[in-house]
Automatic annotation (TrEMBL), chains A, B:
Record domain HTH lacI-type: where: 29-85
Location of the region described as Disordered in the Swiss-Prot/TrEMBL record: 1-36
UniProt source species: Streptomyces jumonjinensis
Any one GO molecular-function label of the UniProt entry: DNA-binding transcription factor activity
Biased composition (Basic and acidic residues): 1-19
One Pfam family recorded for the sequence: Peripla_BP_3
Name this polypeptide is given: LacI family transcriptional regulator
Superkingdom of origin organism: Bacteria
Entry keyword Amino-acid biosynthesis: no
PANTHER family assigned: LACI-RELATED TRANSCRIPTIONAL REPRESSOR (PTHR30146), TRANSCRIPTIONAL REGULATORY PROTEIN (PTHR30146:SF138)
UniProt entry keywords in alphabetical sequence: DNA-binding, Transcription, Transcription regulation
InterPro entries in UniProt: HTH_LacI (IPR000843), LacI/GalR-like_sensor (IPR046335), Lambda_DNA-bd_dom_sf (IPR010982), Peripla_BP_I (IPR028082)
Length: 359, 359
DNA sequence: CCCGCGAAGTTATACGTAACACCTCGGCCG
DNA sequence: CGGCCGAGGTGTTACGTATAACTTCGCGGG
């Protein structure tokens, strides 16, 4: 059936190649080894294992090749494949920090979709507010097909620009021309839902615990809240910008609650962690939540239901952000147009908000 | 000075190679392009850019090459380099879930060390207790040099076994011969510190909220606690195994606190999230923490200080686990012996523990 | 004067895979 | 009977890099 490999003189005279790393002693079998063992050519092995043999290789031969590969424990060399194909099926995810549950969930979503499409995800922590600008491409973590980023330094962006890699941006200014695609949340809508909820409960004096980080998403929150409250006459709002940290929020809230002038009856926080800090401040001042002061979070992380009272907050579909980001990247890589449109968010009313106290 | 490239006939007649992905239109310059532009051979470019030119290339030429590379925006093709060198400078980190802050911090530590050594880290969520065994190598996320794993299914392990990749195990049975190196925490010591603390406060009736997941680390906790309490006569301990989830812990604690027989005065939890659940249960039953019941956590996550009262817990150096894991892997890859010895843990006494109530 | 040697490069190859172009052969149609 | 076609392969090349082995040249010493 097969013509048999005619004895060609092997180019590598003695087969004792040294490995760069002492990563084991068995030199992994190559597709050529499989071919030799199966009595076919390397091309045939590649065709069969690449599932491109329909009509070009007989069923019998294909089975033989597959069996031989399995029995030899053959695993294709990814570096070689990547080189040959010019793509690596690997995406870079740039996020401020995975210790932030939101971004961990984004990663989870992205990784799930990636995995389903035979892609890998490598993460690089972007030094967002800290200024410790490092270049994720200088350290060359891996060969990449594309980038999904939620927050990038200018330095990283310019470094990326030199690579021609498609870029998907998450939760950032949709007008930014740097990105080939955007995945955004209906943040403004979420804030509006919070405002409506609190206004409906009769609150008129507001404190906004905002993030000190100056990114697009936080800008939207500030503007949306201001717009929503301004629409109702008689409301006042004060804004404090703090680091995204429980204790920083606690201190800020404590000052605001004990300061001069009438006390705010509602504290709108840019994140659940900030809300936790606000709750601690209130409790320490002997104020009850929500009887004396209502507090809202944002994100709906695990923290929101671990606290007592459980937080009224806005649920962000974090996993979906990651999924959609990865889908967008895949679309770009295949020349398709990514799905547009903001992901909806949802107000979740729990225990930390209630009617404004009389007076 | 240079001999100039004599006009060799190019093997690729028309230079209009199609790209697999429409990832841009500029075909990235290769080291050969740099060589041509700089008037040297590709080998020289490789030597200079690889920093191996000392004594083999003149300073002037080296500078020229570097300038040319920069001006062309040259970036080495990682796939080709990986193929040539037989290593990829990429490690796989297998963790149950990055949404668990502990593992996110492990990743942070590992990624930091990796980055410092020019390595990348790709994460794969191991389906720990869920049974959804998938093979991280079947989906071939990336070419790998080694694996760091904190919790692997049997399936993933056997898949790994066929690869000859060095394996570093985190927080798992040090007797496991599968791993080439182990990085462990002094978990038992931490539990003992908790027990000593609570015993010193006069507690005698204990509830242990344990993880339902049956891994080595949780086994150690159970055994250590039992041993520590057994050493003091007159103590009783009841154990409830629950999913690592706030609400599951709340329900379990609620049952235990309202059940028949004398109420436990101390609840030892296998994680901060479980402790949060226990706190909620106590509060809902009108019990004060720590006056009526003392509660301890484990891990010292952000949650521990977000709660009120702040949790007495055991601080685990999660980042160090990741750092040491990556260091161990690097050591293995270089043929060195990794550092041995458990990482110390520390009891952090906060507000959720106090003297046992009288009676 | 010639040899050897170091400096400064170059040439040539191999890494393992995918895929294009070619080959061979039996059968079938005109 | 010749030509053609399709089934079932094989030979060969290129991907971009790192590096071993070789070359060339100028120079100093014996």
């Amino acid at each position: 059936m097969t013509h048999g490999p005619r004895e060609t003189t092997p180019r590598t005279p003695p087969d004792d190649r040294p490995r760069a790393y002492p990563t084991g002693d068995t030199p992994r079998p190559t597709s050529r080894d499989v071919a030799r063992a199966a009595g076919v050519s390397q091309a045939t092995v590649s065709l069969v294992l690449g599932d491109k043999w329909r009509g070009r290789v007989s069923q019998r031969t294909a089975d033989t090749v597959r069996d031989t590969a399995r029995s030899l424990g053959y695993r294709p060399n990814l570096a070689a494949r990547n080189l040959r194909l010019g793509r690596t099926r690997t995406a870079l995810l740039v996020v401020p920090a995975l210790t932030n549950e939101f971004f961990a969930r984004v990663h989870t979503g992205a990784a799930a979709v990636a995995d389903r499409h035979g892609f890998g995800v490598v993460v690089y922590p972007s030094p967002d507010g800290t200024g410790t600008a490092r270049d994720p491409f200088a350290s060359a973590p891996a060969a990449l097909d594309g980038v999904i980023a939620s927050s990038m330094t200018a330095g990283a962006l310019t470094a990326l620009r030199g690579t021609d890699l498609p870029l998907v941006m998450l939760d950032s200014d949709p007008a930014d021309p740097e990105a080939a695609a955007h995945v955004n949340l209906a943040i403004g809508d979420g804030i509006r839902q919070i405002a409506d909820h609190l206004l409906g409960l009769g609150h008129r004096r507001y404190l906004h615990l905002a993030s000190a980080i100056d990114t697009w998403t936080f800008g939207v929150r500030a503007r949306s809240l201001a717009a929503a409250l301004d629409a109702t006459p008689g409301t006042t709002a004060h804004t404090l910008r703090v680091p995204l940290d429980v204790n920083a929020a606690r201190e800020a809230a404590q000052q605001a609650l004990t300061g001069p002038g009438p006390r705010p009856t509602a504290i709108v926080c840019d994140g659940d962690a900030l809300a936790a800090g606000a709750c601690k401040a209130a409790r320490r001042l002997g104020l009850r939540v929500p009887d004396d002061v209502s507090i809202t979070g944002f994100d709906d992380l695990a923290l929101a239901t671990a606290l007592e009272p459980e937080l009224t907050t806005v649920r962000l579909p974090a996993e979906q952000v990651g999924e959609r980001g990865m889908h967008a990247l895949l679309a770009l890589l295949e020349g398709r147009t990514p799905t547009e449109g903001d992901l909806p968010v949802e107000l979740v009313v729990r225990e930390s908000t209630g009617p404004a106290p009389a007076g």
